[in-house]
Amino acid sequence: MADNLPSGLVEACVVVGAAGDKLKQLLQALPQTRDRELPLLEPEVLQVHAPPFVSKDSAKDSPAHVHAPAFSRIQKRRSFIKKKRERAATPPADSVKGNGVPSASATGTAPTTSTAAGATEDVSVPKDIDLIALPQLCFPGGLQISEECKEDSYHFLVFTDVFGNRTHGVVVQYHRHVQACQDGHAYQNGHWTSPKGPRLYTAYGICVISKYPYYNALRDCLSCLLMQLRTCRMSDFEERVKEFTAKLALVPIPPPGQLHVVFCLRPLQIFLPSREDKERPAVDLDLHLPFLCFRPQQLLEIITSILTEQRVVFVSSDWARLTLVAECFMRFIHPLHWQHPFVPVLSRQMLDFLMAPTSYLMGCHVHHIEDVLAETDDLILIHIDEGTVSSSSTDNSSLPETPWAARECFLRRVEGLQMHYDLEVCRLGAGTDVNDLRAQRRKWQHKLNTQVQRITLELIVNIFRDVHDHLNYEHRVFNSEEFLKSREPADQTFYQKVLDTHIFHSFLRDRLNQKMDAFSRLELKTRSETHKLRTMMDAPRRPNMQEMARKCHSPEKRLSKRLGMSLPNLAERSPMDTVRKTSLKKVHLKGELKAPQRPIKIFRLPEFPPPLSYSYVQNYYTDMIGQLGKAMTCLCPEDSSLLARYHYLRGFVSYVAGKRLEALSDFQNLYKTDTDIFPAELVRALVDSLAPEERVAADRRPELTRLISRAKRDQEGERARPDPFATIKKFQLPRTHLQREDFVRRIQESGIVKDLSTIHRLFDALTVETCKAGLGWHGVESAVKASSQSIFYVDSGLDGQQKQVDPEVFRFFYTIWKETEAEAQDVDLPTAVLEHLETNECVYKLSSSVKTSHGVGKIAMTQRRLFLLTEGRPGYVEITKFRDIEEVRISSAPFLILRIPSLKIKSSLRKEMFEANLKSECDLWNLMVKEMWAGRKMADEHKDPQYMQQALTNALLMDAVVGCLQSQKAIYAASKLAYFDRMKLEVPMMVPKTTAETLKHKINPSLDLTSPQAVDVLLYTPGQLGVSGADGGGNPKLWCALSDGKVVAFDAASWSMQQNSVQVGSSRLTCLLGVNQQQLWIGSQDSVIYIINPRSMSCNKQLTEHRSEVTGLALEERADKYSHLVAYSCSAEGTVIVWDVSTLQVRKHFRLSCDRLQSVQVHNGWLWCCARDSILEVRRNGTVQRRVSLPPQRSPQLPQRSPSPSPSLSSSPSPVSSHSAYSCFLLFDETEQLWTGCADTDELCVWHCRDLTKPFHRIQLQDCAGVLCMIKVKNQIWVGCRGRSAGQARGKIYVVDTERHLVEKELAAHGDRVQALCSAEDRYVLSGAAQEDGKVAIWKVE
């Protein structure tokens, strides 16, 4: 076996103890030291056992029939350390034996020389393991010779390399008596005769080192080893330890998921739990230990000290507790990762590590604490035994408190934990089988660990929930200042310290990379409805009426302005919440998170063979592969998750066994079962290790060829991909003048607005000409002067002049925007006013106190209405809703000899006009109200609520621009942002009557993006396809495939966007198919069929058999409930593949001769395939039955009014017609009619299935430039086209009657071609447009 094989459970086993010559010297001096305390000895490495223990080459060199001894001394080692020990050559009879450990061949290799000058030993060391410090860590308190035999003790170690990779160790110290040869005694039968004198005992440490934190499992393994060592002959000691290590090296590590591994190491059954996911380490320790040592409030203090990266020192009188408790806290802060030195056990020789100037987390014995405090200050001391947390700082600075809302939620959750195992088993009888008792305890512990992890994860989520609101993903910017301002004043000290830490920086990288880890999943699941609505509407942040009502009712107990609304689980305390921690009563809190538990499956390894014999080891691997195969055959095809774990495990074992092609085949199957656990690095190493003959054999198997090429392609892609650990920028105000591109980036980074067109209008507003190029720029003398001179020109040597925004202007604008946002947070409306407003309304603008026709007060603007907040006794007077406005104008009201500007608003619900003497604010309010009015009209006419949100953003930007410029042209500059008011004048706002009556609603799948994205494919799935109704997923869904592989889902009951979109590859998506409740198939240009699980909104399966762009998917209805479900897929070059849906295996495939195969449908057992040049009727075996050629041109030839064809349809011209190509078709089984459309013609052709030589009817589509898609709904055909309206390119939909062959309706609601259509249960039709529009329209079906 190769040296680069993946490791099993054990990396190495090291035996540490006192050297034989040191023991000899001690015994010789024993008479002189009898009345004194025995000295401490320096521990040394005596043995190192590391895989590989057997090799194919060593098996060939030895006789095939020889099995005793059952191992070969010739071993391949990864690295070596030469250690010289000066000693005189002595005969065996004069050597000193301690626990029977041979000193001459401590590593299992014979000494290279044996002379009086000295001997040299080859100490074999596994890679990345340092033996220098290991003896001290195995005996952190020193190696003491004693006159009594002490009980065995265990402790745990963590090793960290320079790259931050951790390995783990479990150490057992056990004692054996020391016997010396004196005069007159002899060494017989492997034993020394007992001399007269004291009986001495020395300790030996056995350290098992693993890459995986299996602390409990490895401790159990060492317990089994000690039982053997106590009864073995001393001469067999090395062989027993070596055989023990070799057995553990044969144990494979279970993949992430629900499959756990169990093996027998007599007398115990050893249990290896799997990781919950790839990001989490395995949990093989008792996570409730810290809860037994500390009160909940102290747990929060310790977590805070870790999150703020203090110098943390754990202290205990028990070495084992140090690592276990420290590791528990590492699990508690997941998914955050400690970035600094992590040494939970410090030996007495390593205490100077505490002098390090950096942050760290270390542990030491309680005996050393006084020395530590004398030499070091500014420590957080955590005394595990006493359950205390203290600081050694001299400046009396204390740890900041955990944020209040998160703290309260955590404390209440902890009260519900049941950590008393005795209460769980008091009703049970006494067990007689130790393994049954262990399994029972393990089950209870697993349940408790799950609860603890859920509570601590919720704590982390509640602390950092709102971070994503202040991230700009496009430019990788975190606006830390705004995040801090949004926190409660009492919590800001905590966040100020956390935001500057490495641990938070790493967390930010994961958020900016949009990593879907445990934090992201829980954060999405627990978002409040208010937060979801704010995210979907993309509106500026303001408190709504519901939040204001909470402030009115309990101002002294209100939560953070935004954090409180983000914690749906925080209810008012009820009497049952006051149960003390020591109570035995289980507390069930309202809103408690209960994650679904997947059933755990156990795979039992075969009995261990003689582990040092190559042939026996190979037979062991063969048996294990056979058992895995049997387990896989017993699984249901639907249980793909567990099947993936078996494939992973079998691939791993096959790789270790040298069956590389079989291993590749198993890893290839992970694409069809669960790509989340695909071991990319392991597969690349496996591919690189293929021998030439294996590579030739792999090339003969298409599935392995695809895997190998993909592994190499992915590796090259990773090298070319931007560094995921790129530096995260903090938002900073500019210091230099900004050109248009720089201005766009800065505005997006600030989080003010994302939309590119809006930012461009803002740039024009802030660069209104106030100073000509000839005047130059003579400096900024004051802030006001700078703000008035918002533009200057640079002679670029070109004919034009380049506009730039002054950095002072940008700073003023940004400051005013944020101040306005903060002022809105402090708006305190009385309860009487709140009753008149809807719960999701927000006050966005409040005027100064003015005189109006309804009295004196302040005019308030929400997204729906204007109302007057009267002064004196606060009251509510509604002015108008924006949709009811009929006229807005400025007039002047006489006041003495002056005329004061006033704003007049006419409402359709009132006869009299509302008039307000707004004075200097009049022009601004005039602009804002007109923009909101126009936006409301546009939203109502086009059934698109986003227009109202855009108008609201424009109005608030106007307010900030006027406050920023403070010049005569400020109003003119703000008018640049009056987009909808200008549209009302330039283009008619009225939508055609037919369109307005049919259009129900419009939604924007690109809401969270900077620019619209094309809607390439649409699919509606009925309610039963989603998750359970309790999770909000029982409603039907609309799936939208956008550019670059992004899939967005909408709840079809409310047309609200689901929070977590799914990224499937990076290429354009071409087709969608709802297969069943667990599978949604998506075809892509990259030749892959991605499979989404609608329940979890995750993509973890892929079908990779196609070699070019996947263009069509179809599902064949079952003949009966017992038949297999079959799906069809086609690709552009003409390949059609038949799939078994349950197993995802290819049942058949064939290739058609055509020009770009575009879609496939199944009708009455026949396949109908649409290509550019023809439509084919195909038998299931791939035989073409009939071919429908392109229809002949009409006579006379009509002029073509076609722009460039769709990118997805552009190809070489058809051999039949130089200007036409099929784009879509429909087949009607009832009437035996075939309807076809072409990408560059303005007609539909209707064919009779009995005569496919020419169409018997042609339907003219007025103002159509090409048919792109069509669907059948009831007795209608809905046709999506590329059309023209008023001389401009528009998207059009034609509704055609299938019986009369007449166009019933012509619908125009898209600004770009309609390229996707789908039906929602024949009640609605949904249309998606190309990138210029990028929206989805919802139409009523009559």
Automatic annotation (TrEMBL):
Biased composition (Low complexity): 102-119, 1188-1215
InterPro entries in alphabetical order: cDENN_dom (IPR001194), dDENN_dom (IPR005112), DENN_C (IPR043153), DENN_Domain_GEFs (IPR051696), TPR_DENND3 (IPR057977), Tripartite_DENN (IPR037516), uDENN_dom (IPR005113), WD40/YVTN_repeat-like_dom_sf (IPR015943)
Alphabetical keyword list: Guanine-nucleotide releasing factor
One Pfam family in the UniProt entry: TPR_DENND3
Region Disordered, annotated ranges: 82-119, 1186-1215
Domain UDENN: 93-518
GO-annotated cellular components: cytoplasm
PROSITE patterns per UniProt: DENN
Top-level taxonomic group: Eukaryota
Alphabetized GO MF terms: guanyl-nucleotide exchange factor activity
Protein name, entry field: UDENN domain-containing protein
